[in-house]
Amino acid sequence: MRSLIPKTLISSHVLGVDRTGLLEKVKYSQNRNGFYRETSMGIQRSLSGAYGQSYYMGDHGLHCHSQYNVNGSYNQKSTAANFQISNRCYSGMVDSQHEADEGKGLLEELNALCKDKKLEEAVEVLGLLELKKVTVEMPGYLLLMKACGESQALKEAKAVHNHLTMSGHHHDVHICNKILEMYSKCGSMEDAYNVFDKMPKRNLTSWDTMITGFAKNGHGEDAIKMFTEFKKVRLKPDNQMFHGVFAACSVVGDMKEGLLQLESMMKTYKLIPSMDDYVCVVDMLGSSGYLNEALELIEKMPMKPSAEIWEIMMNQSRVHGDLELEDRCAEIVNLLDPSRLDKQPEKDFIPIKPSRPFSFKTETFLFRAGDTSPPDHEKLYSQLRCLKQHMVEVGYVAQTRLVLHDVDHESREEDLLSHSRMLALSEALLTSPARAPIRIINNHRICADCHDAFKIISKLVGRSIVARDERRFHHFESGVCSCKDYW
């Protein structure tokens, strides 16, 4: 994977806008109905015709101030003229109230669409609000950005960012951090870095969001490089930042660096590791197959290991084929928190959120292993069997050891082919445009066989596959994954 961070040092600058060249001096004020312009310094424009009126916009509509003709001399205000002016003022008040009510309705609709995750429609409403010059307050933008991130809706995220930039809101560091988080959750660290590079100010959260985002998106080298740049600004990292560092070491498979970072955390920065910190380190070691080293660390922990740590060891043992260790860990998990084992059968459920490469718009589809409920399920399985033939020709070997059912070899292979992730991929291949990237959301960790299959299929069909599981993003392209097979 190419690095997303340029070789040059990270720059920081502020963009300014020159507002010279205006025909009249103006000032802007904000009330509950939005932004309104008021003339200042006594400079007015004449309306069309012989007579003109100076005017300003207030809370209750258009207010008339005086009359003058085109040469600037004042006229006697007749009764008819006064009536005309009053009529115009009244009309302005009615129109203003109507626009205010309409704007309020659109704002309520925007909030409702965000809550329902109907982001394409929400962005359209945002455009209408901008057209009608109705101000969207910052909580509304934050709600919309949060929804875009949770739905991995990159196209809508870019649209929201564009509207936010044009809205006139001051982009303080808190808002910029939310934009970084939104792009990170959408799997676009390139867009996140472009925002980060232009931030006039950065705080600890800014750096932490970028480091963690790079790691979760499979860009381990960039995450470590970002941490190196962070140390140059002489800020003190916190425990949370090291979670991203450990994840980055896991992505690149550098366990030695990860353990050195753990030591630096305690000795250099005087941070006391918490249970969450040890969870990250155990996961880092286990994901790369260092199961014995992970067990040694658990034994040396200054506190009693949690059920979460043993569950991680159980899952990592299964991934790396140590079924005996998996059983031992499962026994401990059962003693500490039996409910965690009850959730294990649900790991074959994959919710598919409709994203732009898909032709779906507002529905959410749920695929289950061996599912035959979709109307086109026969096409899904037929396509997978056809793909499997080509996959075998280029070296695919089904990891049948992952199937725990006591069935024959052929049935085990069929079971792997019907995993919910594979069904989701088959649906995407059938319904999305050719060459368009495919985005799949997994609510649990991807299995080793699906991981191998996705790599090979990405090369066979010439398409990018972005699969997000409970741990991170996997970017499959041209036969390789961004995680480099460490997850």
TrEMBL record:
Its main location: mitochondrion. It is found in: Mitochondrion. PPR repeats lie at residues 172-202, 203-237. This is DYW domain-containing protein. Keywords: Mitochondrion, Repeat, Transit peptide. It holds the Pfam family PPR. The keyword Mitochondrion applies. The keyword ATP-binding does not apply. Residues 395-487 form the DYW domain. Transmembrane segments: none annotated. It comes from the Eukaryota. GO terms for molecular function: RNA binding; zinc ion binding. It comes from Lactuca virosa.
